[in-house]
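User: My instructor asked us to take a sequence, write out its structure as tokens, and then describe one feature of it. I'm not sure where to start. Here is the sequence I was given:
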Amino acid sequence: MELPNFRYFNVVWGESYTDLFMDGCLASELSPGNLPFVANKTTCSYTIYTTPEYKRIIAKSDVFKKLASMMSVRFVEFSGVSYVGKHGILSQCTRHFMKTFVHEDCAFVMMYPDVIVADGAYARILEIVQSGKRVVAAHAPRLSKETFIPALQDRFGKGKNMAPLASRNLVKLALQHLHPETSAMSWWSEDYSIVQQECLCWPVNQEGLLIRTLNMTPFMIRPYNKTVFPEYNLDAAYLLEAFDSMDDVYVVCDTDDICIMDCTSELDRLDNIKPGKINIQDVVRYAKRHAHSFHLDCLKHRIYFHCDDVSANWEHIASKSDEVVNDIFCRLSKEAFKAGETTYSAPGAGAHKPSWFKVVSPLFWLRQLRELGPSGLIKKLLSKLYFIIMQFLFGKKIRIKEIRELGPPVKQ
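Assistant: Let's start with the prediction itself. The structure tokens for your sequence are:
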């Protein structure tokens, strides 16, 4: 099969993300089995969306110069980010990026500044594209940035001098620096996350984690339908509109195959963690509200996050996870039957757009009150109100301007 062009993408703004991008994300992408490998096989380009201040910093770095020596690189400058929010910035930049190549058959590899990629991941994605798959979806466990990044750099170096990150070495290090919210997703944890109810994990001694999740990120997409673009996250309505079936999707089930990590501040998301055990009914409720056919298919897969050979210790844990997942699907089917449906049908594309009906629903606010408590709910409401007022005054769209002088033109 003839290879498409590969178009790589990242969005970088602020000091923290910029440091992570240069010393972690891009450094790991430059491992021999990642960007250098693909650049020798097909036409590639790398597009960096960033603000004017950080464009200058990135362009002067040695790691950027190494990237620019092997493929076409361009900057796209944006501004007006103060009251847009992280996901608003990412979604607007993603749409702009994909529209740039709307007339080209290409594989988009969507990366983020706080993500670390093991060596060989991009070479494997290329193989998967050659096999005919059009989406590669993987789960990136969340790690504590404050402890993981120093440990990573101490062991493997940083920037252009980072040593290749073998998957098992990366997992072994990551297991020592799991984010508190990731730990709260453990089936046996005494705490649970009131937000991340789509992911469950089972620790297997010191060998790794068995993960079952509704949430897997499409890191590579090669859409059939080029007339639609993601309005929100890539795994929301967009997947149902841009691809023919789940047969187009390759789900990464083993970190020996492709290994990707997410680095988040240890202080971030702590408000989501509450004392108590995971409740399967909460997972069912989350699935009914948010999951479509792609998410439900992901939940059926066992994900092996491991730093050694998969031993007999995993068999019992895998069976336990199957029991839990089967229970979730049984409850979904029973609730569908009660509602007069013969089987559970995942919501369609339209179900994943923000709903004003949900916002004004008393049940929604009662659930928020139960999860957050009175003070937490008031804090959330005040924060949302402030954000809405600022967006009304200053707008909720970023301003995008292409900058071409810092990289050679993109090859078509």
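For the description part of your assignment, you could build on this observation: The radius of gyration is 21 Å. Try explaining in your own words what that tells you about the chain.
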